[in-house]
């Protein structure tokens, strides 16, 4: 019987070629548009979910009020994350990421300029799940004058991903300083709210001392926004309770300092997987997406599919009535 239905359908298609082409093409285009929109939405919603503990990683956001005006920053003072980790049991680990920009250096008499370079705490590669080709994520950033490269950056500099133990020469205060490669990771996935080519150990970054980072206590500063901080919460942690504890710790540790400066601060948490679509803060680490576009395209997809199906049914019904 099914074969008979197919035969009848084929005869109708041949008998009404023009109308059938319009009918099927309209439905096919509508479905194709919906598939493309679905792929876009799925990609936008997938950001940072490849990390093993993506559901437990949060980024504190800085709400700073001065003279009645409140501003919201993605960057954090450097003292906050380690201070919170020390004081709050639900915070299993923390990592700070300092945006370095372009790193200029030499290797074998060749000059290189590598964009998207950062400095990070030793815990950075254990908090996040970047795949190591060579090196140990536990120790890669422990010592000063060390760095981790992505595979493309290693190929660009050394012509091979076998770069651990090799070094680059960075000009610093009138002399060249040797930095040693301690790890190579696979290229950062495109669906990340930030991407890097090179990560220095935080002690190396401190020793370079550019601009405000030249201050001796820049790693323990509770006021100036100079890094992006990430916290790993325990599996049993309640985010609302952790935020209450953060407020209490901030008041206890730095409340007097803020009072003297005439500022008030609070540091609510933002889920790692929300950063790409739900961030509209000052000093963001990179340009992010917008959840409103996801909503708009979702509505468009439903409308396109509805119109395509409606037209298909209408044309098919009209042809049946005519017969």
UniProtKB/TrEMBL annotation:
PROSITE patterns: PROKAR_LIPOPROTEIN. GO terms for molecular function: transmembrane transporter activity. It holds the Pfam family MacB_PCD. Keywords: Membrane, Transmembrane, Transmembrane helix. Residues 20-248 form the MacB-like periplasmic core domain. InterPro entries: MacB_PCD, Macrolide_Exporter_MacB. GO terms for cellular component: plasma membrane. The chain crosses the membrane at residues 21-41, 293-313. This is MacB-like periplasmic core domain-containing protein. It comes from marine sediment metagenome. The lineage of its organism: unclassified sequences, metagenomes, ecological metagenomes.
